[in-house]
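During the reporting period the student researcher (J.K.) took over the structure-prediction task from the postdoctoral fellow and processed the backlog of single-chain submissions. One of the processed entries is reproduced below for the supervisory committee.
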Amino acid sequence: MRRSLSDLIDQGRGAAPADLVLKNGRIFDLVTGELVQTDVAICGDRIVGTFGTYEGRSEIDCRGRILVPGFIDTHLHVESSLVTPFEFDRCVTPRGITTAICDPHEIANVCGLEGIRYFLEAAEHLVMDLRVQLSSCVPSTHMETAGAALEAADLVPLMDHPRVIGLAEFMNFPGVLAKDAGCLAKLEAFRGRHIDGHAPLLRGKDLNGYIAAGIRTEHEATTAEEALEKLRKGMRVLIREGSVSRDLQALVPLLTERHSPYLCLCTDDRNPLDIAEHGHIDHMIRTAIRLGAPPLAVYRAASLSAAEAFGLKDRGLIAPGKRADVVALESLEGCHAGLVVAGGVVVDAGAFAARGTVAPVARASVRVAPVEAAAFRCPGNRAETPVIGILPGKIITEHLTDAIEPVDGDKRPDPSRDLARIAVIERHGRNGGRAVGFVRGFGMRRGAIASTVCHDHHNLAVVGVDYADMALAANRLREIEGGFAVAAEGEILAELALPVGGLMSLRPFEEVRDALVALREAARGLGVTLEEPFLQLAFLALPVIPHLKITDRGIVDVDRFEILP
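J.K. obtained the following structure tokens:
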């Protein structure tokens, strides 16, 4: 709610009662590191008074609580929460996340600008402030088939939208370094605006060239050494702790009061089950402090540093003139939100009930013909075979090889050696492409799992040791408009329908969480040892993360940026 300047001045001076006053709390001052007893006066969506006593038309007693600025997730894909923006809002805003900076490139890779516009329209109705980066890599590379393609000319008309910050993570870093014409056109169009990065393991002079293209922030550092090089070269580093990619422990040594002005926190890809069991940005804060990071450094990274990094000058501090995003905590170490105010609105059931809605997009997007078991055969005469090696907790892989002798012209899965079949089937109705290969690390002993969450092209991915079960799981996803399925011995054991682009559910996040529990248990029943098998499967198809990946075009050697013969 926007108020007049006169109202802001009068309520800030105490000449008129404030709209809302948080009484008797202690502010954690992110400039000085002090805990200061004070009221916080709010007028409309702005903080107008601190370091004093105020009267308000509405007052909330915060005695015994510590007040910190609302948390900012600096990079995420709402689609990876498996729910719509509305359910994501209801899931994480009560935990203190009052601003989220999203890249809707998952839905954009399914339905293009329609998906981006859906997020921009939804953002107008949420309790949290959802900001949008325009998806830069649709498709992410030339080695996959997505449902759409976006060029610079498609994105430019949206660049001045009030919810847009800039250009989203530029994943095709080989294309930047090779000066690909399409990449350069996008970078040139957004020159001088915020451009987010994505450059795993990129170091040295190649990193210099990538940054020189105007890329300011980056979330793919997985070691302190890599992150420190990026910091020294002027990048803001976004420390990530998602459901698969978990880099906080490796990077927490950098999270000091000296470095914290240049560090931010992000989740990237985190599902409702992990949010329910552990938390979101609040989980990162608790964990970082437990690992020894100073609370001042951690809370700066979670709000003030994040706001500065992305040009959101109106937030990140509890101070006059700033957006009224406030989280009341019992303790800094515990970081459990007892009260959240977002843009001057108390976050409760009434706030969510008062929101408007937007119709979902990209229904019936799984356009594949029925799949037969024979589609998963892997022909070949040579025993020496490339194998994708999973590194648990990481989205990078190992480039392995193994001797797999063909039997009747087919190289078959071998559970005794943890060799499972992996396949990707084009599902956008464009060319019907499909590819098969091998993966090690699932620990699967029987059955199959399938998913249409398949970064970033979001084709249909299946991993299994039984061809008939692989076909059953894949065909089930055709019937339910995409999602996840677990099959064994000719039976679907668990599933979750994701009918919005094959990515998001239309159900409440609590029901999605419960379905994920059932899916995880069903996967474990197949022998799967991975904590997040579905997201791990999804990232095995992302052809810009070293080292081996699989798309509908074939096995991709990302180091050489080519499809293996």
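The committee noted the following: The CA atoms of residues 367 and 429 lie 5 Å apart.
J.K. will present the remaining backlog at the next meeting.
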